[in-house]
Amino acid sequence: MYKFVEGQPLIVTEKMKEDFWRDGYIIVKQLLTKGEIQKVVGSLEAPDSAVMAESYEQDDGFGRNVRMVLWNHPGNDVTGMVNRCEKMVNTCEKLLGDDVYHYHSKFVMKEPHTGGAFQWHQDYGYWYLNGVLFPDMISVQIGVDRMDKENGCLQVLRGSHRMGRVEHGRIGQQAGADLERVAEAEKVLDKVSVELDQGDALFFHCNLLHTSSANNSSRRRWAMICCYNSVNNDPVKKHHHASYTPLHKVSNSAIMDCKNLNDLSGKWFVNPNKTGREYLPTEPRKQ
Q: What's the cofactor (predicted)?
């Protein structure tokens, strides 16, 4: 477990790389400051939040829903600054060993007592179907709220990324990994509950098997997940996530400096529950 020190660059050490490639993930404490989290949350909780206007519900296959909002191009609002800031992007690049571009990001919102579960899956389990040839991809989950076992935090099988891609099918509106394969993996790999405080970040490999249970607690469980692909791994076909688009990094201070809390110019949303809300990679959404 590592810690980001505000005002200093996040140095990715050889030990961090070693841990990432051995376990499939690392945790960086306080990647986002309390002020940065409050700014992001404020932009979402505002009655006129343009980002939340693009949210939708997804069936978990067991009678519950998870609310989500998903976008591809990061844009210039405060959530886009999180996607583009150096402490996020540079860390992904150092861990993968290549430059990256923004593949997509989302907020996952599990409300108290009602928020649904996510089935065991690998992100590359379905990104593979988008024409992405190699698992040279990484995701970063940020705790917007405190995330623990009680409210449905992420669970991972440590080292499962070394299994390669597992076959996936559909469970409700979600993609789920072959449960027989998962059961065998559980016999030989440690299952870890990834508990995060506000602002903590989990950097994880796209083949890491992970799941999360329903939120049966009285507390909200919101998370932001930012996903990146290697620039040398451009998908070979058009699909509903971003193909290679140069990522323009910003300084870490850009999150707090950003005044565009509701400006969606340059963003590209995907909402499967709305007709006409999926945009081709060559046609980013225009305001």
A: Fe cation
Q: What is the pLDDT of residue 34?
A: 96
Residue 34 domain flag? yes
* Boundaries of domain holding 218: 2-270
Cβ atoms < 10 Å from Cβ of 29 = 14
**Is residue 248 assigned to a domain?**
yes
- What is the model's pTM? 0.92
Contact in structure between 251 and 8 (CB atoms under 8 Å) = no
Rounded Cα–Cα distance for residues 113 and 214 (Å): 8
In the block, tokens 């070979």 appear at 236
- Are the CB atoms for 262 and 49 separated by under 8 Å? yes
Query: b/e for 34-53, b at 16 or more Cβ within 10 A?
Result: eebbebbbebbeeeebbbbe
Q: Which contiguous run of DSSP H or E holds residue 90?
A: helix 86-96
